[in-house]
Amino acid sequence: MRVAIRGEGYSSAVEAFVSGNLLAARACETLCNRLPAYAGMAGDDATATDFAASYDEAAAEAVSALAGLVGGLGSLGHLAEASLANHLAADAESVVGAAYRPDAPPSRADDSVGLLVGTPPSSLGADSSSLPGWASVVLDFLEGVFWPDADTDRLRDAAASWRSAATSVSILTAHCRTALEGFEGELSPEIPLAVATTQDLRVRIDVVADQLATIATSCEAYADQVDAKRAEMLDLLEQLGIELGVGALVTGALSLLSGGLAAGAGTAAAGGRIAAVSRDLKVIVDALRVLNGSTSAGLRPVSATLRDSRSYLSRLVAARRTAMTERGSLRLGREYGFPRRWLRSHEHSGSHTRRDHIGRSDQQLRERLANESGPPAASTFRSEREAERAIEDAISRNRGAIDNWMASGRFKKPFFADVGYDIGRILVRDTGEIVSSTKVRLVLVKDSSMPLGWRLLTAFPDL
Q1: 90, 119, 271, 375: which is deepest, by most CB within 10 A?
Q2: What residue spans define the domains of the chain?
């Protein structure tokens, strides 16, 4: 196959992917920052449980899929950059007497970010104060009737947040179009795969945007249903109060309400009317339960669709980083497409690589050995960038073993690799000597919240 590389097309694609990555990250962070304000918005009565369960599942899948879009765009940015670097290296090698620089300086792809997202708070549980005081007293006389207590104002605010996120995500398709236009100007063996992958990602972006909009519509529908049925209930409660002779009911003068209602409710006619209104109110509540059930059913496919997209995006993030040489042969890179500063997203829930094993001074290593009786040595990577590179290479060398471990029932597993280059320093307890190391020890734990299904617990230079 003839190869014709201008470079501008690749650079344009890298810019499109990275700018899309940053836009997706901003949309994801904005949404995740807003969602805690909507905790408990569905209420906690019997009409709320189905909607809350469906919404909570869809919301969790949605933010995970959004984080997946962030990672997918960043991964494609790095892949496009790696391909361009391979072609530039091949050009340099083809010139007799030219100096060959295997390590190009960091470029735009290094600006891409990765995100770790948590599970949004449940929408079930809060108790809205939407019921007027006078109606609350009347309702106490009705057996088996309850007030739907969803917070419809917050439901509509949540809908606006989801719709805003959907709009931001839909814009990302333009970034894919720009990348595709860039690839059109290049001729190389990997271009068809790059085009197909970018087209697939564009489809997934549309899918995610549509599902976010569906969540918004469901929140609005739920709020409208609750408000409409509440209005019907208030009409009946008001009529009942008037029929029972409680003149203060409509004005809300509660000082006169309790006694008047109790006296009016004591007659046989009033008892029959109360029973009739109770039945009518139950019919309204049952109708609301049916409507909310329909809204909940509309959310369930959202979770399944987003779960499928998240799975695809996770594979894209974890895709083998490969680039084609000028001769068409594969040049293997690292097995996983880690964004720059990815290590920070792993530093939680007890993980401590950055805290304990990066940039430590010799004195700090000595203090650690003095304070801890167990380890035979204390070690440190020189910098976070060098640590990430060494850990990535160690993970790449253990790819098969990691896959086998992920398929097993074991929660935690250590791995080891000699990466073949100096990665840091080790202070040996027995000799007091400080030596350099080319070996990495790392410990992984399973974590379903992470894009690859595992989290780095710790990593350090080893003897």
Answers
A1: 90
A2: 8-95+106-116+150-223+290-322, 342-462
